[in-house]
């Protein structure tokens, strides 16, 4: 795997073989860990892509927990637990950190962002002298916004720069137009000494120009170009010849778009 200039927060993650109890037991049986020794992260943006069940979300969750984030999302200051559902993969990872210290950080996972929003509301109902937590997210309860609006509020207000941001399938909340807006915000934050590690299915997000893409398949994890990803190839084929692909998939000579 390619070596990058060591000038950011998380340089690489190493899998410690002596801490793996059984390669046939989840999560160590996942494709992402096949022949896995270490992964090196781009100083600005690293993408993990792959099919459902490949293990990309499990790996990104383990990276977040090993860094010190709450397993269900949030910053290091969040310590709620709705359910104990994360794997023990983080216990077998060793993180190699850079000399610079991140001043900010956040772990977003689309499936439990609702729980983060609920925890923020609960914290703000407690008496205290500090400003409301929600003031860091734009001032409006995340539950009073659409999923996409609340995520953009997080991206535009809570992520302050000079930070490590680990995102699991952020496109789940975003329209294509909002995904383009996210690319702009990512550039602003990357220019402000931030580093992203993102698990995604979105070809729009993968197109970010200053990034490294790792594709996870039955063959393990491999570094690929944007055009080499299965997501881009399938999406491009469909958009170029939608009727032909629909006829092939549906067995219907009359399939139209």
What does the model show?
With 257 residues, this protein is α/β, with parallel strands linked by helices. It has a single domain, classed as Rossmann fold (3-Layer(aba) Sandwich). Helix content is 30%, strand content 19%. It has seven helices and nine strands, in the order βββαββααβαβαββαα. The strands form two sheets. It has a six-stranded mixed β-sheet, sandwiched between helices. A three-stranded antiparallel β-sheet has the order 2-1-4, covered by helices on one side. Helix 4 links the parallel strand 6 (163-168) and strand 7 (195-199). Helix 6 (230-240) crosses helix 7 (242-250). The mean pLDDT is 84.
Question: How do the helices and strands line up, and which of them pair or pack?
Answer:
Elements: E1 10-15, E2 38-40, E3 45-50, H1 56-67, E4 93-97, E5 104-109, H2 113-125, H3 147-158, E6 163-168, H4 176-191, E7 195-199, H5 203-206, E8 211-217, E9 220-224, H6 230-240, H7 242-250
Parallel strand pairs: 3-7, 3-8, 5-6, 6-7
Antiparallel strand pairs: 1-2, 1-4, 8-9
Overall mean pLDDT score?
84
**CATH second-level architecture:** 3-Layer(aba) Sandwich
Strand content: 15-25%
Look up the CATH topology.
Rossmann fold
Name of the CATH superfamily: P-loop containing nucleotide triphosphate hydrolases
Derived structural class: alpha/beta
CATH class: Alpha Beta
Number of domains: 1
Radius of gyration: 19 Å
Shape: globular
Terminal residue distance: 41 Å
Number of helical segments with 4 or more residues:
7
For the largest beta sheet, what order do the strands appear in spatially?
Answer: 5-6-7-3-8-9
Biggest β-sheet, characterized? Answer: 6 strands, mixed
Taking pLDDT < 50 over at least 5 consecutive residues as the criterion, the unreliable ranges are none
Helix content bin:
25-40%
Query: Could you give the order of the helices and strands?
Result: EEEHEEHHEHEHEEHH
Number of extended strands: 9
């Amino acid at each position: 795997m390619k070596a990058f200039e060591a000038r950011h927060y998380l340089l690489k993650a190493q899998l410690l073989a002596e801490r793996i109890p059984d390669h046939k037991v989840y999560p160590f049986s996942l494709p992402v860990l096949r022949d896995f020794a270490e992964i090196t992260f781009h100083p600005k943006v690293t993408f993990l892509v792959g099919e459902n069940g490949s293990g990309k979300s499990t790996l990104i969750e383990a990276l977040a927990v090993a860094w010190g984030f709450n397993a269900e999302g949030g910053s290091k200051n969040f310590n709620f637990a709705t359910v104990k559902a994360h794997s023990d993969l983080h216990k077998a990872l060793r993180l190699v950190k850079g000399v610079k210290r991140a001043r900010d950080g956040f772990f977003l996972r689309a499936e439990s962002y609702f729980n983060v929003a609920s925890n923020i509301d609960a914290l703000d109902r407690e008496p205290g002298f500090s400003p409301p937590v929600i003031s860091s997210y734009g001032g409006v309860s995340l539950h009073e916004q659409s999923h996409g609006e609340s995520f953009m509020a997080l991206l535009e207000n809570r992520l302050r720069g000079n930070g490590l941001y680990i995102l699991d399938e952020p496109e789940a909340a975003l329209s294509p137009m909002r995904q383009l807006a996210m690319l702009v915000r990512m550039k602003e934050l990357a220019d402000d000494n931030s580093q992203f590690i993102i698990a995604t299915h979105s070809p729009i997000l993968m197109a970010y120009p200053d990034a490294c893409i790792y594709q996870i398949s039955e063959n393990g994890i491999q570094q690929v170009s944007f055009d080499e990803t299965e997501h881009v190839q399938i999406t491009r084929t469909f958009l170029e010849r939608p009727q032909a692909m629909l006829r092939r998939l549906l067995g219907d000579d009359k399939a139209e778009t």
